Amino acid sequence: MKRLNKVLFTVALVLFAGAAMATGNLSVNISEGEGAEAHVRVTNAVESQFEMEIRNMNNDIVYYKQIQQPLKLVLNTFDFSALSNGEYTFTVKLDKEMNRSVLAVKDGDVKVLDQTKQVDPYFGFNNEQLKISYLNHAADDVVLYVYDAKTNRLIHEDDLGSEFAVNHAIDLSKLNKGSYEAVLVSSNGTYEYDITLN
Fold this sequence. Notes:
By secondary structure, this protein is mostly beta strands.
């Protein structure tokens, strides 16, 4: 019976990891054009609505566009010649995915300094088991905390490591009935998931 439970748990873990891996299809390529131009190519596996924004160092929005018509491909050329010297963030959002690029504008020229990708984690709760899948694009440490929702008391803490594909499950059946909050923390952000034990 223990062996069967282990096999079923492994199959369930693979299935929900596959669901998380099915995301992450957003691709953003930025190439430097002539002078202050940047050519942007945004693609996704399925037709989607994108949001694009550019923010300056003060976090002010200098450009925003929401593409209403679902598309698989968006091509844009941006002219940064009117912008002041400094760093800007160019962000493309799609559902639970985000790609952020840091651009440097100096004397009319634009350079891509850094690009990071972020996909929100998958949380699932069934049969008093909390399951989490997370694509850790930053390859930094990921930590899971579980708090009692009424008292904010820390109930459980797990260091999930720094692997690219983080898959984790914990048994919450020994906890008292009530409300809890799972908090996944990575360098890309903090993600919360509410749990109710009946």
